[in-house]
Each structure stands twice: as structure tokens, then as C-alpha cells.
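thread: overnight batch results

M.L. [08:02]
morning all. the overnight job finished for the chain we discussed friday. pasting input first so we're all looking at the same thing
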Amino acid sequence: MSSTPTPAPGVPEQLQRRLGVPDAVLIGLGSMIGAGIFASLAPAARAAGSGLLLGLAVAAAVAYCNATSSARLAALYPASGGTYVYGRERLGEFWGFLAGWAFVVGKTASCAAMALTVGSYLWPGQAHAVAVAAVVALTAVNYAGVQKSALLTRVIVAVVLAVLAAVVVTSLTSGTVDAARLDVGSDATFGGILQAAGLLFFAFAGYARIATLGEEVRDPARTIPRAIPLALGITLVVYAAVAVSVLLVLGPDGLAAAEAPLTEAARTAGADWLVPVVRVGAAVAALGSLLALILGVSRTTLAMARDRHLPHALAAVHPKYKVPHRAELLVGAVVATVAAAGDVRGAIGFSSFGVLAYYAVANASAFTLSPAEGRPARVIPVVGLAGCLVLAFALPLSSVLTGAAVLGVGAAAFGFRRARARRA
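M.L. [08:03]
and the structure it wrote out:
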């Protein structure tokens, strides 16, 4: 007989709390230290030029505010769904729905982009086929239970950190280092720095995965506020070290022109042996991002299905594995279809817009907390909210227009559903 109690009629079956601080930190690291650091430096350098490090600092500051707000809210509302739940509870049903919609749609596009990144590094000629295979394999891993996902994430994080450390050490000890390349020149504009920050923010956004797993974390009031800043702090140190070392070797112009910045840095530093290692590391990093993205999107889908903003059948929890199996299968099927149909890397800008909208709701929700509820210093959610809005609208115009249109479709669908409910 199973020792798991059967939920009362009408009460949604709960996920099991299995994750401690180390596992939660690793899931956050697996989400952040992924393909973003291999791919986002070049477009950010094209936007900011020699102001790249300033853009990284702005992105990190906004991410810190978002992480602090998210951690306080996640400790108070330890349920799957993250900001979807916080917005619903603190601001009203519409804002919760809008946050969940932005997260699910934006991150589904990110999943497909990460899958295609795996394919382009491992087998460029068959990138779409490899992408679909990666989605199927990682969906199966997630289906088997969150502990197995955390175990695989631990391996992926170790491999990626080893590769990044090799790039940093090789770059800094090469004869091509020039400290003058870190100087901020006239090519760095305020608008360019903000746009670079918006692009780099995409690589920081993974700490949301810790919050969306709130229902599967042990002692969430203690674990989540510790895990989120730890994961963010480690990630910032790693990103800063990589950005500085690559800039010292390539310079802003060389970095902006590089298709694969870390590979180019290794080659320029005279370490040709490291080039294939970096390629494998990039593919592994993309796999880690994809694993955590599928995990997070499925949990937000679960929360929205419980509230019937999505089909209620997606709220089912597997009786053996204790995962939202229908939500995971649907997310995997949609991502595999998008990855097979075309290149979605252009959707990364939209994903950044959606993620920034998601965190804007998180900061607004945190602002409503009372001191007894663990409210952060007022300045943190204020700066976080303002930073999210500024960075969102500093993104390329096509990303802003696409993102606003998709959020508008979600808002219209919410209004239509509410109107139908009133007539019924």
C-alpha cells in the first residue's frame, strides 16, 4: 500500500516536497548558467560596445531586486506557479493570469531556442532532428520525477562550470590580454547599455525556476530565500569572470563580431584544443537550460490549469512519480513541434520581454507585502519594477511589438473568459 495520503474530494493533489537548499540552488544554476552565457555576449556587445560590463551590472542589479522580491513571495506562497500565484493573491486574478501567460508563452519559445542550440552545436546539419530528440529525452527525465531532474542538473552544472573555468583561465593567462580593452569608450551609449542589459537579463532569469518549484521544496520559508540569492550570486560571479576574460582577449569589436564568442576567445588565445571542448560545453549548457525550462513551464501550466485558466485536465499529478505529467507531456509536444518547424532564435527577444513583464508583476506584488509578511525594503520592489519596464522597452522594437501583441492576446482571452463566466 502507498503511504501517500489520498487528497480529499475537490482538493488538488499536491506535489511532494523533496528538494533542499543544495538541489534548489543547483536547479537555479542550471537555469542561469546555460546557453545564455555562450550566446548572449555577442549581441549585447553589438548593442553596448565597450559598455558591455555596465550592461551586465545593470542586468544584475535588476535581477537582484527581482530575486529578492521573488524569494519573499515564494516563502509566503510555496506553491507551484511562481509569480502567477503571487500576482493572483496580491494584485488580483488578472495580473496573476498575465504573469503566467507571459511566462508560459515566452519560456516555451525559449525551450525551442535552447533545443535548437543543442542541435546547432552537436550536429549542425541535423539541428532540427537533434533538437526534437533533446526535447523528448528531457521531457522523459522530468516525467520520471523532480529528484532525477535535480541529479541530472548537478552533472550538467559541473560540466559547464568546468568549461567556463577553462575558458577564463586560458584567456587570462594568454599573451593576447590587453587591459585597455576594458575601458569604456565613446561607442557606449546609454540606450545601448540598456538594450544590452535587457539582452543579458535573459541569461539571469533562471532563478524563477526555484520559485515555480515552491510546492516541491522542503521548508520553503527557509529554503527558497536562501537558494535564490545564492544561485544568483554564484551566477553573477561566473558571468563577470567570463565577460571580463573574453573582453580582454577579443575586445568589444571582436566580441561583437564573433558568432561563437567563447570558441573565438579560445582560438585567439592559442588554445585550439579547447575549441571542441567549448562546443560540447555549449551543447551541455543548452541541455541544462532546456531541462530547467521544461520543468518551470510545466509547473506554471499546472497552477494555471488548477484555476481553469488552461484546460483543467493539465492539473493532473502522476500517482507514482508525483509530477504534473499531462502538463509536462503537452509542453514537451509543443516545444518539439516548434523546434522541428523552424529557427526560433528570433523569439529570444520576445522571451526577454515576457520574462521582464513576469518580474514586473512579481515586484508589484512584493510591494504590497506587510512587514509581518517579510516585505523587503521598499526600494527593492520599486527599483525592480522600474528596471523591468525600462529594460523591456529598451529591447529591439520588433521584440517590444511582438511581446506587447502576445500579452494583448492573453489579456483579451482572459476578458472573454470572464465575460462568458458572468453570462453563465
